[in-house]
Write a structure and sequence with these properties.
4-stranded antiparallel sheet, Alpha-Beta Plaits, 25 helices, globular, 592 residues, 3 domains, monoatomic cation transmembrane transporter activity, single chain
Length: 592
Amino acid sequence: MTFEMLFVLILIVAMLAGLILEVARPDMVIFSALVLLLLSGILTVDEALSGFSNEGMLTVALLFIVAGAVQKSGLIDRMMQTWLQNSKTQTDSMLRFFVPTSMFSAFLNNTPIVVTFTPIIKNWCEERGIAPSKFLIPLSYVTILGGTITLMGTSTNLVVHGMMLDFGLEGFSLFTPAVVGIPAVLIGLIYLFTIGTKLLPDNKGFSQRIKEDSKEYIAEMQVMPHFPHIDESVKRAGLRDLKGLYLIEIMRGDERISPVKSTTLIHAGDRLIFTGLISTIADLQKIKGLQLETGTNIDLDDLKNGTTNLVEAVVSDQSLLLSKSIKQSQFRSRYDAGVIAVHRNNERINSKVGDIVLKPGDSLLLLAGTDFVEKYQQSNDFFVVSSLDTPASLNQSPAKGWFSIAVLLVMIMMVTLGWLSMFKAMAVAVLIFLITKMMTPEEAKKYVHFNVLLLIASALGIGVAMRKTGLAEWVAGGLLDVGEPLGLMAMLFIMYILTNVFTELITNSAAAVIMLPIGIEMAQTLSLNPTGFAVLIAMAASASFMTPIGYQTNLIVYGPGGYQFTDYVKVGLPLSLFVMITSVLIIYYVWF
């Protein structure tokens, strides 16, 4: 092993450790590794920047915009809501929802699909007394599986395709992944409708928990100078025995009084920290001299006259709010919305609302203006923004919705017939949407997840370093030494498992970029079809079911479903095994 190979290997191990330990955002960790490779002289400037001009990465950027245009129309939302209204049983509902959803995700980026459908499913479930947790993990899983059907269904397939072109190989056609993707979807749906649904938890919906669980949410009231019980005890002020509400702490300057005794005196300026029912807190605000602290100039009384509404927002893993308290992030001035409650993984957070340090997947209950949902629906700070009172307004006519879908279908046909490459077809689609004013350039920019593109482009540069230094060839040789005596089938399982472990621990695109050069080297050494290894790695990198962090859609449903980390392991492990066995067997017999 040369010094350069050792340096790249150590850097990749350090990068993986940084991703697993979440020392910074994934895109920044991988970009930092790329910069070190550039500074060390292992990569030239052109080589380091090659990922930023990779066809697969640029196609992902265009697909974000195309999916955004279709999502913006609201047509698919309305179609699914109408389709669901006629379902009679839970199994019937799952069939009606997840079969079409898996098809949608074959042609649209799955992240916007999950973002769009999460509030629809959640509200639909709560209206019928069904636990949303029975539907939300399956929603993520079927979109992941559906994305494996086509080249455009997932960023992983596009990244692998782009890297194959860089290797001088043919790359994927639109339906190359379907050979494995369609059987995987069928296996996944059968599993989720039978065994999977029994393993899923039966968690109440977010708004149901607000109404029913009095010990899980935190709210803050401030004692104003005109409060009639200034300098009287908590008991005498009538704050001790409130139905569905419990005073857990009093903040007085720098002093924290907890636990609160019945004899504790109330002073002007005190901040009273309650856990309890939102409805009870609303009633409490009627007491003269107590003011709900929401961080804005709007209050719960405005709900009655329609000037504000209750909004649920799920913090994203790319949010600028992470690692800061709500107060430090200046939530009030940034969003003109107040955080009433924070929900985290069925965990009671014993802290003043403003002092809570937010984490990815946290569900925030906000008191916000009526335009909040529309304004921040596409913000990278939140995964899901949905009103708990009324559904988000749909801003376009059905005609525009049908037009956006027609453009997408025509472009897909062009790619299928070989008239245009995927990149050219999506570029034409975006141009049509801009010329027809289906969206403005500003809107198009909002739909693009630049953090995802930075991650992919940086990871591609690291893949170049692995090939250039010979590290990919060295690792491939080691894997061949271990796997060759066991046979080709065993080697395919080893490659699949390694890629899948990486995607669960880091991210799907990074896992594919690290493993593909190794797979190509193995194919060339064994004189085998490299497409088979490429499909195997793309499938293994996409099939992330066992953790909420491996695939973005898993994290999106984490908070709204009230899931625990172990729920993903319990439901996802059998599905991972079924998909792995299906994929390896098909790839073995089709390509080798």
